[in-house]
Design a protein that fits this description.
Distance between the termini: 33 Å
Number of strands: 18
Structural class: alpha/beta
Number of helices: 20
CATH superfamily of the largest domain: Endonuclease Chain A
CATH topology of the largest domain: Endonuclease, Chain A
Largest sheet: 9 strands, mixed
Length: 510
């Protein structure tokens, strides 16, 4: 009873009720309108106009098709739904804020005493194809490649937490934390305890968390609670109890920067399921990476640009640059992707790795909701003799999304792609590794939301010793994963096939 009372008094329950009431009001009004011939015809014309609007603007084909079908099947409701939540061009104010965000990001990354031209030249000598990929990422996301960086890989959330806490305790000047999920529990309690100690020592701490990702897992005013403890904090894109297209844009990044010299990113959030203290979908398999050295500057700039964008601060970010020297472990290129510039940096980086592969491409992803270009690239690589392997979860966190992922299995397996499901539970790591030369690890799922709607980040490793560690970890994961046969992928009930077709059609809208 106490839990029920707590739930109905929560911000989550209030938001759900208000949104449902808005939907009921909209549907009630349109049910009355549809009985009037004039208004019904007018709304039909409006739906046609909206279809033309969707087609005209620069958007992905799968996204366009989904909205066209929805609007034409439900000319009144589909049109209203698109007006409320569809992806549309930014407003004047939105465009202005975006320009400031991107300009600050670019200025920060390039306004350092020693821009890494030497690393760019050395990478070209190491591998011309990888150098071309690096130049693309640098040119479109303003994220240069660096040397003079040590790299450490964590194959489990439990190992990550040990390293994470150890480095937090060493902080002397500042700690920047940006995560999609912040949740009360054992993991966050250990982190917060150290942060409060560091506040007493005079360490500056900034925390940015996504309001939607943390919704219901911390109090609604948690940023104010942290501020009262001496920690600067902000909830990104705070949830409003009404339908709003801006709510689609979420901060899915996982970044921690310590004193400008140490940086973390990967698939892990600050919640107990990521370290298997709370069992939700079987064993949770996740990974992370730690950088020490010059490449951390990219992560620092990503965080501060987002902080300034969300808070309106105008702090000079160059005073947080790296100050310690570290040995080189290959070439390291942290990069960010965002929904504001209409450039799919992460998706293109994945495609480049697939297209350049000569021996193998191994992938881990919790979601496999891909467009025609990605599907074709994977199939062509496998048909060309490249060893393409993909590991997805066996126990999903979102059943409808898992059904869409499985809808691609047959096409991929027929082309020679080896598809596996992680038998112990849920694999949440997002990794690409290829030919022993290149790998990407970060926050980027293989789905529409990560590629087009979320703020994301990743790290590309070229020639790093960690690449072998990532490959070895995936080999170990394959040992406890079930390979899906073509017969299994095709031999499903008719109703499930129909359901998957429908879900796949509308998956970019979800």
């Amino acid at each position: 009873m106490k839990k029920f009372v707590k739930f109905i008094m929560s911000r989550l329950f209030l938001s759900i009720v208000l949104i449902v009431l808005q939907l009921i009001l909209v549907f009630t009004l349109y049910n009355r309108v549809i009985n009037d011939a004039f208004w019904a015809q007018l709304m039909t014309y409006l739906s046609v106009a909206l279809v033309l609007w969707v087609i005209y603007h620069k958007q992905e084909p799968e996204y366009i098709i989904g909205w066209i079908v929805l609007i034409m099947i439900f000319p009144l409701y589909g049109g209203v739904f698109y007006i409320l939540v569809g992806k549309k061009p930014l407003s004047f104010i939105g465009r202005k804020r975006t320009r400031v965000f991107l300009e600050n990001y670019k200025k920060g990354l390039f306004n350092v005493p020693a821009y890494p031209l030497a690393a760019t030249i050395a990478l070209k000598d190491y591998d011309k194809d990888l150098s071309r990929q690096s130049r693309y990422i640098s040119n479109v996301s303003y994220s240069p490649v660096w040397a003079n960086t040590e790299v450490s890989y964590y194959s489990t959330g439990e190992d990550f937490l040990k390293g994470f806490l150890k480095e937090l305790k060493r902080a002397k000047k500042f700690i920047f934390i940006e995560f999609f999920v912040l949740a009360k529990g054992e993991m966050w309690s250990q982190v917060l305890e150290i942060l409060l100690e560091k506040v007493e020592e005079g360490v500056k701490i900034k925390i940015l968390y996504d309001d939607f990702g943390s919704f219901g897992r911390i109090p609604g005013n948690y940023d104010k609670i942290l501020q009262s403890k001496g920690i600067e904090s902000k909830a990104f894109n705070a949830i409003k109890p009404h339908l709003n297209v801006r709510m689609n844009y979420r901060d899915h990044r996982k970044i921690c920067v310590i004193d400008g010299n140490v940086g973390f990113t990967g698939g892990l959030n600050l919640a107990d399921e990521y370290i298997n203290r709370s069992i939700r979908f079987g064993h949770w398999k996740d990974t992370a990476i730690m950088l020490k050295g010059e490449a951390v500057w990219n992560l620092t700039t990503m965080f501060l640009s987002m902080w300034n964008f969300e808070t309106g601060a105008t702090e000079n970010i160059t005073k947080y640059k790296p100050s310690a020297k570290y040995l080189t472990d290959g070439f390291v290129q942290p990069f960010g992707d965002n929904p504001l510039d209409e450039i799919a940096v992460a998706e293109t980086a994945y495609l480049q790795i697939i297209n350049m592969a000569k021996k193998y491409v191994w992938i881990t992803t919790p979601y496999l909701i891909i467009n025609r270009a990605m599907l074709s690239a994977l199939c062509i690589a496998a048909q060309s003799g490249v060893d393409v392997r993909i590991i997805c979860p066996m126990i999903p966190d979102k059943r409808q999304v898992h059904e869409v992922s499985r809808s691609y299995y047959a096409n991929l397996i027929e082309a020679g792609v080896k598809v596996y499901e992680y038998a112990p539970g849920f694999i949440h790591s997002k990794m690409f590794v290829s030919d022993g030369k290149v790998a990407i690890i970060g926050t980027i799922n293989m789905d529409y939301r990560s590629f087009y709607l979320h703020f994301e980040c990743g790290v590309v490793l070229y020639g790093s010793s960690v690449i072998a560690n990532i490959k070895q970890d995936i080999e170990s994961t394959l040992q406890v994963s079930k390979r899906i046969s073509l017969k299994e992928a095709k031999n499903i009930q008719l109703w499930r096939k129909i359901m998957r077709m429908i879900l796949r059609l509308f998956s970019p809208l979800l």
